[in-house]
Please model this.
Amino acid sequence: MVAQQELNLIQAVRKESIQQIETLLKGGVNVNTTDPHHTTALIYAVQRGDLKIVELILHCGANVNHQKQPQGVSALMLAASGNHLAILDVLIQAGADVNQVNSDGSPALMIAVYKGHTDIVQRLLDAGADVNLQDNDGDTALSLAIQQNYIGIAIQLIQKGININQFYPDDETALTLAAEKGNCDLISSLLKAGSDINHATTTGDTALLIAATEGHTEAVKLLLTSGVNIHHQNHEGETALHLATIEGHLAIVQILLQAGIKAAQRNQLGDTPLIIAALQGYEEIVKELLKYQANPNLENQRETPLTLAIAQEHLNIVKILLDSGANPNQFYLDGKTVLMKAAELNNVVLIQYLLSAGADINQKDKNGGTAIMWASYRGSLEAVQLLLQSANISLNDRNPGGLTALMLAQFQQHHEIVSLLQKAGARE
Model:
């Protein structure tokens, strides 16, 4: 049982009653007694930010390194968290352990960094705080500073000689974390201090790949001028160009291409940046990639930039690809031609682009179908109308089942198309 006198001391501190505190201390009360919350008078005094009471309690023999359980919080940690600089100084002078950690493995320095208290950080550093301590999550003061975007504090820590190549969770380093934030001052400081510019995380991503993904244009420029490996691929086979393309970062795509990155590099799935850009509908990126001789006819599992652009109805990209030499007679994996797909979609603009580029209107798929057959079967009225305008169309071709375009339209009861075909001379 805690004596009432000791509890009275804690209550007096909480009420900030100096006179009562002095009386109790002169009476010989145990200054280190804890209440049911495992908290001492000193802890309460620091929490309240009362310098005078803190000094008074310390003078009477308070344990400066007592830790409140179960969190393991000390007076120094509370002073750091509360930005109580004068109290922090007094505690350090009284022998506070600057490297003592709480139940999370965090010392006062990491707590101050997390809160962004620059002056507290400096005072702890001057008092000998270990900058390389890692908490239970594997973080250090530097990684916390970067994650919280406290660039000034991060530079403080770098200048203090922290291990800048220390590994954090997922094999992140200070540089890869900084690349994610895109702060060039910090990246520059880290590189000058000897950061490994080509270090890869557990996913195989370097600072360049991370900066490219996040769209940090200036950071990408800085890394490129600092000698980063521009051709590095992560564990999925993606380069910085792949990642910038995926996210639609045109400016970064341009910078990477100008720097000499391979435009035709495939990732592990077999995709080139051009395939990705065509699928995503990034028109300007498609143009840039083609400027650097990206091949519009490179396939990945029978898919090409053109087949993907047509399937997504990215009209401008289809035109750009065709004008750049894309084959207008390509096949999809299901055996259909790109013209058949456009006809199925009833997209007359796509059909016009393909026919103008030389698409074979009578080309057959693996099942013997033609573009007019597919348009008639799907009920694509506008497509049928456009295809019928071609003087070269073979209107009465039959598939292996003996069916013509007219018969397919009749079967599906597309009466308007039936009428059009009959007027054009179609036969059963």
In short: Strands lie at 67-68, 73-74. The two ends are 104 Å apart (CA to CA).
